[in-house]
Amino acid sequence: xxxxxxxxxxxxxxxxxxxxxxxxxxxxxxxxxxxxxxxxxxxxxxxxxxxxxxxxxxxxxxxxxxxxxxxxxxxxxxxxxxxxxxxxxxxxxxxxxxxxxxxxxxxxxxxxxxxxxxxxxxxxxxxxxxxxxxxxxxxxxxxxxxxxxxxxxxxxxxxxx
Length: 161
Hints:
Blueprint: E1 7-9, E2 15-17, H1 18-22, E3 27-32, H2 41-52, E4 58-63, H3 75-86, H4 105-110, E5 129-132, E6 138-142, H5 151-160
Parallel strand pairs: 3-4
Antiparallel strand pairs: 1-2, 3-5, 5-6
């Protein structure tokens, strides 16, 4: 199955697929958390989303509570925090698992892609980033500490849109 066709619920609980959420356009998929030292990356992700949205690009937040319980809230709490604290407008899904036996099918595909250091496999931490093209092909993987405005990430986005 193409990862864009995997079922995912939006943050408000409505069913969708990644294709529906992204409009079949290139996207940056990020496992996010509200209580992490990297949470301020939400601001940069929102700027990236705003800058490229008119070119058919989206950032998609996929909340995950697998890393030290740093995303404990309900969908409503996550939405309120992201909107009030960082002005997030990019689409988000309900919480999913990115590692382990209950790994979401989207991440089954994503983790087969090597990061810039050549590492494949489990997501390391919150805010790991996967860049996918409009057909669902994973074209780049960035470690959690790579900021949304990092030149390498921006260049990869520019090459897609």
